[in-house]
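Protocol step 4 of 6: structure prediction from sequence.
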Amino acid sequence: MKKLLLAFLISFVAAQTNAQRWISLFDGKTTNGWHSYGKTTVGEAWTVEEGAIVFDPAAKKAGKYGGDIVTNEGFNDFHLQLEWKIAKNGNSGIIFFVQDEPTKYKNTWHTGPEMQVLDNDGHADAKIISHRAGNLYDLIVGKEGVVKPYDQWNKVDIIFKKGKLDLILNDVNVVSTHVGDDGWKELVRRSKFAKGESPDFAKVLSGHIALQDHGDKVSYRNIRIQKL
């Protein structure tokens, strides 16, 4: 009986400790802790609806600013977790290692790799095999058949520790790779990021998290991170 009680207490303490390690990046009510890239606040085309951060393309067309939104804080080794829901025919992305230097880099993706967010059945980008939902965009083709259709929530875990990167979609590890080694450099060399506008792409293996404004409606919720 004492052994069972001790095992329960150890398990309970471990669970509590793990819960305390999570840092919320979204309070479900405001965009506090974020800013549009190149700005000091979040553009008005990003709103909070029913506990989610939502990009509204209609608001952007009406003249409100959007842009990729970026965490105020940067991260080294981390475990990022969130859920996303894309509209029909929509496109977005989760970008990390972003260097928040808009005077030097025009876009977040000039420095940060991206886990693709996409309606695979409706958006033309899905015709490119390395541009489908869950992929490490334009670098590594992920496991197929995991993403849920548009207007359904998809769970994401992005884990980076000591050079190893894992992209997990709906509890399935869809991409696993090492960042910064010769194999990685060859992936980058063969990608669109080898072009002149992205000379520092993924060269700094720490930075900010960004959610992409690709002009289509997208929602993100339950955004949290652990520093590893």
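Step 5 (inspection) to follow. The first strand starts at residue 23 and ends at 24.
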